[in-house]
Amino acid sequence: HNPRIDKALRFLEAHDSDGTYARALRAHVWAALPDEYADHLQIEGAWLKQAHNASLYDYGSDAGLRFDHSCTQYGILGMWEYVKRGGQVSANFWTDAAEHFIDAQNGDGGWGYQVGGSSTGSMTTAGLTVLYIARQWIRREHRRADAAINAAIAKGLDWLDRHFDGGNNPPGGGRSLYYLYGIERVALASGIKLLNGQDWFESGAVHILGEMGPNGSMGSLEDTAFALAFAFSSFSFVSTPPLRRCGVAEVQ
Questions:
Q1: Are 152 and 144 in contact (CB under 8 A)?
Q2: Rounded to two decimals, what is the model's pTM?
Q3: Average pLDDT, the chain
Q4: Average pLDDT over residues 95-110
Q5: What backbone torsions phi and psi does residue 120 show, to the nearest 5 degrees?
Q6: In whole angstroms, what separates CA 33 from the centre of its chain?
Q7: Nearest 5°: phi and psi at 110?
Q8: What is the pLDDT of residue 235?
Q9: Helix (H, G, I), strand (E, B), or coil: what is residue 120?
Q10: Res. 245 pLDDT band, cuts 50 70 90
Q11: pLDDT reported for residue 23
């Protein structure tokens, strides 16, 4: 019953905007709320189920031939929230996703924005997140995980481990907050604590605090939201919240 959260929820209920990112992120919100919001989650899940083409997503709902790994990551993250709360999706959805990211993996172990594109940190987190999620749903009734998925994950984690440098999105350093939230999603799925010998959580929090403006923002509204999602989605990984560990006692 926090009035600011209630106001934000009313906004989301009133602004039913389309698009893979909007639908997937709203699915995260509805999935975290009590059952009275279940109908909203069903709406997002139904949209995401018809918007993909062989588990690949574009920005919109036309399910055409165009896709990229960023839109696909968020479409699948939205579907993950949907099925965790009881939503139904065909088994092919997960196998198609896994097969694509296994085939699209670069020789160095990373992934690019498109098939064959240069490996980047943010798109490698996308590939790993999708494979972890797909493995969970494909093999949940089996005693052993799929060997091909395991091998692709191992190569991807090796790339990420070798290139991790706090909040700097390798190789160029752009979209660092988007990248850090991708790191958090990989860690949520895998349980990893360290990357390149560093506590990824603490390193990311230090980066956020170093970039934060006097008013608490990270520049754009979107980057501020990614920073908050990184910080507060990750509390299950540590006993002490990261911003407190880094010397900030309270975030207003």
A1: no
A2: 0.90
A3: 90
A4: 98
A5: -130, 160
A6: 19
A7: -95, -175
A8: 56
A9: strand
A10: very low
A11: 96
Tell me if 10 sits within 8 A of 39, measured CB to CB.
Answer: no
Q: At what angle do helices 91-104 and 147-163 cross, to 10 degrees?
A: 50
* Top-confidence residue, 222 or 238: 222
Measured between its terminal Cα atoms, the distance across the chain in Å is 18
Q: 19-41 b/e with 16+ CB inside 10 Å = b?
A: bbbbbbbbbbbbbeeeeebeebb
For 43, other C-beta atoms within 10 Å of its C-beta total 15
Encoding tokens for residue 62? 């036309």
Is residue 183 a contact partner of residue 200, using CB atoms and an 8 Å limit?
yes
CB 126 within 8 A of CB 182: yes
Rounded distance between C-alpha atoms, residue 126 and residue 211, angstroms:
24
Which comes out higher in pLDDT, residue 61 or 183? 183
Query: What angle do the packed helices 176-190 and 221-233 form, to 10 degrees?
Result: 20
Name which of 21, 70, 86, 82 is nearest 46 in CA terms. Answer: 82
Packed helices 147-163 and 121-138: angle between N→C axes, nearest 10 degrees: 150
C-alpha angle 34-183-206 in degrees, rounded to nearest 5: 100
Residue type, 20: T
| Residues 105-117: tens digit of each pLDDT | 999 999 999 999 9
Residue 234 is predicted with a pLDDT of 61
